[in-house]
Specification:
The protein is mainly alpha-helical. The longest helix has 26 residues. It has one domain.
Length: about 280
């Protein structure tokens, strides 16, 4: 059991689980728009997510422990480097316009983790990266996820961005914001007050109300689209209700895997629902 537990922790800590979630969400877009399964794009998103998340999470640790890295961090570094090489390999098969958009998203990720020159009144400490700007974190992450899982598939398939695709983009942005709220509620015990997270600013109850409103927007927008099938609308309604339950039952003292595994699994569950009923 101890070996299984270590493997599972590595699965979570190395960002493999969140990578599956990102790939699943991009696959949802392909299914919704009746696009062919694209193993190169989905594989790129998978390995790019591992690379980006581990870069953001462990850059500071690696810099601090560059001479005496803990064993687990060394393993994750090697694993991340392999993921980076895999990402580069699959990028070869993507369209030029897609690579341009990827470059922009890469810059956002870079400045999210690396110190840059930002006016001090926006910061709560001396780290000076986008991640440390009060209240901005969740919106940056939601925006990157939206472009990665909606607009990358669209651009790579040379589809013009019409009203329905814009609606899907807004839906995805709202959905990602909602599934981040349980994480923010969990981290109330640890986050500095100067981070100005949503629960810190408005409290847990109002945060849940905010999430309910966002889910309402997601579902209402689904029925505002013209081209999406009934199966798409049903899957969105189901995943909206499942997400609502996870949001309502989230609290500061949630179990270790409540957000890190179960909430993070929601995009994978969404894909499963969509594939089953399609």
């Amino acid at each position: 059991m101890q070996v299984v537990k270590r493997i599972f922790h590595f699965y979570l800590n190395s960002s493999v689980h969140v990578a599956f979630a990102a790939s699943a969400m991009a696959w949802v877009t392909l299914v919704e728009l009746n696009l062919a399964y694209d193993k190169y794009l989905l594989s790129f998103i998978f390995f790019a997510t591992i690379t980006g998340y581990n870069f953001v999470k462990y850059f500071g640790l690696a810099k601090f422990h560059h001479r005496r890295l803990a064993g687990w961090l060394k393993v994750i570094q090697v694993f991340s480097f392999i993921a980076f090489l895999s990402m580069c390999y699959f990028a070869i098969y993507l369209e030029i316009n897609t690579l341009t958009l990827i470059g922009i998203l890469g810059l956002v990720t870079f400045f999210y983790a690396i110190p840059v020159m930002i006016p001090k009144h926006y910061m709560f400490d001396s780290h000076k990266n986008l991640r440390q700007i009060g209240g901005l974190k969740v919106y940056v992450i939601a925006l990157v996820w939206t472009f990665s899982t909606v607009f990358l598939p669209v651009v790579n398939n040379a589809i013009s961005i019409d009203t329905d695709i814009v609606i899907i983009g807004i839906q995805r942005f709202c959905f990602v914001l909602v599934i981040m709220l349980p994480f923010e509620i969990r981290d109330l015990n640890y986050d500095s007050l100067k981070l100005a997270t949503i629960p810190q600013k408005i409290g847990i109850e109002k945060t849940k109300i905010f999430g309910v409103l966002l889910l309402t927007v997601v579902i209402m927008l689904e029925y505002a689209t013209e081209e999406l099938s009934v199966n798409n609308k049903v899957s969105t309604l189901i995943i909206g209700l499942v997400t609502l339950l996870f949001l309502l039952f989230s609290n500061k003292n949630q179990s270790q895997y409540y957000s890190a595994f179960w909430v993070e699994s929601l995009p994978i569950i969404w894909l499963g629902i969509l594939l089953i009923i399609s």
